[in-house]
Amino acid sequence: MVQLKIYKVNISKSILTFIFVFFFFISNGQILPVRLTTEMAENPLAVVENQPKLSWLLVSKESNASQVAYLILVASSEEKLNNDDGDIWNSGRVNTDKNLHIVYNGKPLKSETKYFWKVKVWNQSGKVSKWSKTAIFRTASLESDLNPIWIGAITKADSHLPEGRNYHTATFNREKKMSFINASDSLARRSIMLRKPFEIEKAVKEAVVYISGLGHYELTINGKKVGNSQFAPLWTDYDKTVNYNVYELNAKEFQKGDNVIGVLLGNGMYNTLAERYTKFFVSFGPSTLFFKMKIKYNDGSEEIIKSDRTWKYSKSPITYNSIFGGEDYNANLEQKDWNRKGFKDRDWKKVVIQEAPKGVLRPQTASPVTIQKQYEVQTVKELKPNFYVFDMGQNLSGFPTIKVKGKRGQSIRVWVAEGLNEEGTIAQGRSGKPYYYDYTLKGDGVEEWTPKFSFYGYQYVQIENINYKEDKNKEFPTLVDLKSNFIYNSAGEAGNFACSNEIFNKTHELINNSIKSNFQSVFTDCPQREKLGWLEEIQLNGPGLMFNYNLQNFLPATMQNISDSQRDNGLIPTIVPEYVIFGGDFTDSPEWGVTGVILPWMYYEYYGDASLLEKYFPVMKNYVDYLGTKATNHIVSHGLGDWYDYGTHPAGYSKNSPIALSATSHYYYGAYLVAKASKLLGKTEDFEKYDTLASEIKTAFNKEFFNEETKQYGTNSQFSNAVPIFMDIVEPQYKEAVMQNLLADIKEKGDRLTTGDVGNRYLFQTLARNGENETMYRMHNHYDAPGYGFQIKFGLTTLTEQWDPRKGNSWNHFMLGQIEEWFYQSLAGIMSDPEKPGFKHFFIQPEVVGDMTFAKADYQSVYGKIASSWEKKDGKFILTVQIPVNTTATIKLPVAKNSEIKIDNKKVRVGFDEKAQKPVLELGSGIYTIECQL
């Protein structure tokens, strides 16, 4: 019997708790609600909704287990909840199998207030569970409650920075660049430290901090860092939205008597600099801080400490910080214990009250970026005396940590890069130069330093004029240790995949290292040269992203950014937030902009949550209307098309396929999805309008691009024929002929693709969804270009911008990573049911292709863990599946109709799917081993 294996993954404390509770209670034969969430987050500290949605997972040792009713209690205190007193809401018994997105329906919630809740459920046998563990949520502040006062070292008016962020300042204009440099006062660009002493004379019960430091901040209380964020708050269009963070502190963070709040500020995307490398020059203003801390004492009294004129500031030892150019630190400028009591700040200056950012203050609900992994030096080469290049073994987004010793005033310059020149030195030519870190020693033993406000994509580190490990030359400082910090969003991983094919395993690893590298405040295109949120990657890689990562709280933030960036005429730009205006097709391309329409649907399909469709329906509708203004007889002709399609031509604009075909197909797809959303949301007039529009676009598309004689679309390319099949634009009577033409082209090209960034997903899924998984296997099971194997053979650890790594600029892009969808949905066979979103019901229908002998994947759905693990052994096909409580699955087996089938060694009768030509099983929750004769 095949046993389901446990994969080695980074598991959060909440997941470990969930696993412990699961095994404890299922051993006692109970169904139990676990992992309670509010607005899809565990114990959130800033719930915005007046009627938040409550959810929970269910666990049980019984098969076919389901919920038939629930009872929720919400209380104003933990004591009341422990006494089963739901003084805020007692739902009473509600007869339903629904355990997700239960709308709170109790007393009106107060802002800045903590609530406690729990739930119990009844199973299919009428047995009631124990109460769940207590969960909490804290409501967000109203802006009137926050009453923000912004402070800093210099006002915006005195800083002489460009007036606001607009479509003229955020450009490459060289004259503006020079004026930006000449007009900038050092205080407008310099990292500063702010401090506020305060006294505690009574016993503290708890304290809550509300803070936004722009561009980025680091907060300490009595010298101890609060939270683990890097680059907080997350990036936004600061003219539209400004994120603030919320931290809950307990009594041990404070000491009786004197205490000190310390805040370090850096530039981030809020205030980019012109020196060294930068992608663009833009400023929303000088560094600025909003702070509020509400302290509750045991005696019931409260105290509020806010950012105001009583704070002081000083320049920090960080003498230069640029998100694009690097960071410099002079340890001789350190002021020891500046953020602790007893420090004399008589030389510090009083802060000024600054102009508030234009954007609306919103609590950051997406998870923070953190240091996730650390890498040691793998190999080191001394190219010439005291000139070293270190290979850290992994291309990543992040920054180094150095330990050095030497004389006061000596300095060390750290260069980082993705690749090397022929002579072995680091090469930044493709990825943006110059980028480096400078550290000036204070001469006090071994000194350790980690940058705080800049990151880059790199694998190699170059340091000149140093000793390494041993003090050979006293003229130079000695590098004692070097580490590489991998930073990415802490949302957490949702899935795992592995199989018998080594190319596919390595491909999965390459893609996910690239996704992680670009999983920052936004999904970026690359972590070095641009760091920009190009939108097409999200929707084209959407299923792979959602199978691999927990995006329940991240994608709503993405949609807020999209909404903020949408122009008055409905245009959704290609990058969001739109920090720079590239113009033309690089600002307005339908394949990119339509992400604002597709993403809410993907969110609904994977998480069973229609909130993004409800909230952003106007955004979706306005974008489709905008495309209508650009259309002539329903044909849209602008954009980038199938960007970076493969061929002998230089990469860039689509060359193999008509740009108009690509643009119009996405116009159709947008109209089709808006019609679907209209129907789901009960918007009858909108449904009729956009359903008619979609039909008219389809007719115009076929008239313009389809050749009835040849049964080919456009230029007969793979993209031209795959897109209309995928989007169901091709008329049914022609579908098979178009499909055969597509297959013929693939065969003619030696089972190689010619698609690019946009076309890959449509090609891959057209093959997968139409029974051509063997073709998919041949197309990717090789080491030639174009293909993933070529990059593996090249020795890379991340996916590159082009199929041939020797071309293009970045070695850390995930835009070509659309095969992840095939790994999970086809090879492992985990497929959602669009009729029952969120995997309430799903399919497991693995494909056995080529010479593969096993494949396995698991996915942490909103209902619980789904797993599919199959192997071919001794003439048998053995499949182990895991189906969460309160869900059902249809299993489609890749064996003959008359195959003998056993479940857990018991022979069973099965149905047969005539269309798929596969035996079919319908199963409820549980873990099953299914054995079939091949």
Automatic annotation (TrEMBL):
Outline the extent of the Bacterial alpha-L-rhamnosidase N-terminal domain.
202-372
**Has the keyword Cytoplasm been applied to this entry?**
no
Catalysed reaction equations from the record: Hydrolysis of terminal non-reducing alpha-L-rhamnose residues in alpha-L-rhamnosides
State if Hydrolase is listed as a keyword: yes
> Where does the Alpha-L-rhamnosidase concanavalin-like domain lie?
382-470
Write down the EC number: 3.2.1.40
Protein name per its UniProtKB record: alpha-L-rhamnosidase
Q: Which UniProt keywords apply?
A: Hydrolase
**Organism ancestry:** Bacteria, Pseudomonadati, Bacteroidota, Flavobacteriia, Flavobacteriales
Q: InterPro entries from the xrefs?
A: 6-hairpin_glycosidase_sf, 6hp_glycosidase-like_sf, Alpha_rhamnosid, Bac_rhamnosid6H, Bac_rhamnosid_C, Bac_rhamnosid_N, Ig-like_fold, Rhamnosid_concanavalin
Give the matching SUPFAM superfamilies.
Six-hairpin glycosidases (SSF48208)
Recorded GO molecular functions are:
hydrolase activity
Which Pfam families does this chain map to?
Bac_rhamnosid, Bac_rhamnosid6H, Bac_rhamnosid_C, Bac_rhamnosid_N, Ig_Rha78A_N
Q: Which residues form the Alpha-L-rhamnosidase six-hairpin glycosidase domain?
A: 493-826
Q: Where is the Alpha-L-rhamnosidase C-terminal domain?
A: 834-905
